[in-house]
Every structure is written in structure tokens, then in C-alpha cells.
Amino acid sequence: LEGVRPDAADLVGLRRAAARVLLGNWTGSSTVPSRTLYPHQWSWDSAFVALGLRHLSPRRAQRELESLLGAQWDDGRLPHIVFDAATPEGAYFPGPDFWRAGPFPGVRTSGIVQPPVHAFAVWEVFRADPAEAERRGFLARAYPRLAAWHRYLRTRRDLGGHGLAAIVHPWESGMDNSPCWDGPLARVDPVPPSRFRRRDLDHAAPGDRPTDLDYGRYVRLAAHYRDHGYDDASAPHAFAVEDPAFNALLALSELALARIAAAVGADPAPHRRRADEVVAALLDRLWDASSGLFLCRDLRGGGLIREHGVTGLVPLAVPGLPVAADLLRTACGARFGLGRVHMVPSYDLTGPAFDPARYWRGPSWFNIGRLVHLGLLEHGAAERAAALRRSMLRAAARSRFAEYVDPLTGEGHGATGFAWTAATVLDLIA
Ligand code: 9WN
């Protein structure tokens, strides 16, 4: 793939290579993000994977989402990891013995969640082959589960009481070690590294990953939540943050749920109303006019977090967003360099904590690129969207479907053969 130019005939080879990655990561009922680093099913990965899989096999894309929805808890939450029963405990840390969680015997999961992009994915997968979906009862079975998932987020997770869902662990953002979390995490007493064994470093360079100090804090927070039975009312939640991307995806998914509701004969109006409410709360609570970006809000006393992460650009994907023009300007400005760097960096290029290799502290990620691409199309920036698409296809090809790339050089980091990278390529080529 070394010399691939993302045009004409090269796309045929790229598509074939992307399909091979997804076939190789398929377990029989879902897709692992990476055979080495992440050998289980992850929540938001599955949604992005399904968006790509629908171009290979709509039926398989439906199954991907159904296996995640099948691990839903009674309270409505969709766990961020569904553990593969055949994979040994030691393959990933923290594994099922750490979390001690699951919706019912035989299904082991983590106890935290990830961004709610699922209803959006369900609707798009449905549209790929409505007849097959109809035959399998895909929407009718997914709708009540998705509605319960959103209800969980709107009620038990509205820790601030202003209509936004809060995340209670950095892993819940999907952007684990973003500099946005440095402030709130500083209050968390880290578990010493001698008390756990990281497995990620068996497969990835330490300079590409979160630090031991980060991990110590991740472990402390997760163990605390676990020891309170994952009960949001009684858990103390030392970390509680309103995250723009998480809530923007909730709004986007409520809009999709309205369409799903209408298709299954339910009332779409409450979902549309909730989408409007989330957007209004986003604008009210997280919009920062001075930087032209949405910021995160620390619910444990810190107020708005003055770090400029790509999470604040993701609301661009929401149709009708009143501040889209400002966000577009910010995307193209010095902080995110859209059109001048590879894809979209995960953190402010001019920020003090910027690191082009370390995970969510600067590198560009394909799922985020996909959401920004959607937003550019949504808000009439077709040429910028086309340029971003080319940048993503080139980066995926050159990096052999890397997990993330250096925004300054395009060099791949983390795992290769990464599922949502391949899925995004399929989705962009289709
Ligand atoms: C923890 C699987 C997941 C992604 C996240 C990414 C990373 C896990 C880890 O991998 O997180 O959930 O072990 O680092 O940050 O976005 O869903 O690909």
C-alpha cells in the first residue's frame, strides 16, 4: 500500500485491503478493534465498524450492532467492552476479572460506557439494505434498546442537572488521555503501578500510549465505581465531566432515533424534542464564544476546562447547529489546521500539552475525521470535506490502517490493521 494515491484505480486496492482487515478482525458475531491491543468488542468502535461493514455485508453490520445491544444492562447502559469468552483474561487489562460485571450470567462486560453513536449507526446500517433489515426485524428489535440506552444517559447520567450526560471516567469519552482530563484527574489518587499489570505495552510503544500515572488514576476511578456496584446515585464520582462530543453524538443519535421510531410506528416527536434539548444545553453550558469551540465542563468544581480538544469540534456533525460557522473557522484556524495537517488533530496544535504521537494528546484519529467530514458536508463545506477525505484515505493507506497518525507527518502510531480505520475507508470510498 506504500505508494497508494487515493484516486482512481488505487481505491480498488485500498478497498480490498480494508475489507481484509475487517474480515480478519471478525470473531463470528462482532469485530475486535485490533487483534493485538484490543481483543474484545468495544462499544463505539462497533458503531464505526458497522458503518463500514454495511458496504461489505449489511447483514454482518446488523449483527455487529446486535451483539453489542445484546449486552445491554437492565438499567439501559451499553457497556464499553463486551468481553470475548474465548480470549484469556491476561490478553487485555483491565479484563473481566477486574470489572466483575455483566448484564446476566455468561456475558461479561465492563461497567462504564462510551459515546452514544449507536442509534446513528443503526439508522445508517438500516438504510444500506432496508429489505434485509425488515426481514430480520432489525429496527423493531433495536429501537427499545436504543431508547433505553438514551434514557439511561438522560436520567442517571445527568449529574449536573442541566440536560447533559456526564462521563465518570476518561475512558467513557473514548479520548482517554486528552489534556482536557488532566485537571480533573489531578484530584484522583493514583493506584501505584506495582498493583496492576498493563498489557497494552506488550503491543505498543510507551511513547504512543497513556502514562503509568494516567493508568493509576484510570484504575482507581474504575475500581471505585465497581465497588459502588456501578450505581450512579451512590458512587461518589471523583471524576464527572460534561463532554461536548459525547453529548453531540447523543443529539445526533436522538435525531436518528426519531427516524427509527417513525419507521417502527412509534412517535418520533419526543426524540426530536430531546435532540433539541441536548443542543440547547450544549450551547448554554459548553459553548465558548471567545475560542469558537465547545469546551468540557468539570462538574467537581473546576467549571469550564480551558483546554482545546477535538471533542469541541465534533458538534459540527449535528444538523442545524447554530454555531457551525464559528466551529468551521476554528477547525481551519491555528489550533486544528484543517487542510494544512494530516486529518484532524485530537488536540490544539498550539497547546502546551500537544504531543503528535501520544494517543489523544495530538494524533489524528479516523473516527473523529469521519465525524468532522460529516459535519463539513452537513454545513456546506464540500471542498474542505473532499480534502479531508483525501487526507484520510492517504493516511490509512500509508500507515496500513493505523490506529492513529501523527498530524504533522502522517506517520502511523499504535496498532495497525485497526478496525474503525478500515471501516472508515470503506465508508469514504463507497
Ligand atoms: C480503553 C478500542 C478503544 C477505543 C478508545 C481508545 C482505546 C481503550 C484502551 O481503545 O481505549 O477503552 O485500552 O486504551 O482510546 O477510543 O474505543 O479501540
From TrEMBL:
GO terms for molecular function: Glc3Man9GlcNAc2 oligosaccharide glucosidase activity. Keywords: Glycosidase, Hydrolase. Coiled coil: none annotated. Residues 38-421 form the Mannosylglycerate hydrolase MGH1-like glycoside hydrolase domain. SUPFAM superfamilies: Six-hairpin glycosidases. It holds the Pfam family MGH1-like_GH. GO terms for biological process: oligosaccharide metabolic process; protein N-linked glycosylation. Belongs to the glycosyl hydrolase 63 family. This is Mannosylglycerate hydrolase MGH1-like glycoside hydrolase domain-containing protein. It comes from Actinomadura rubrobrunea.
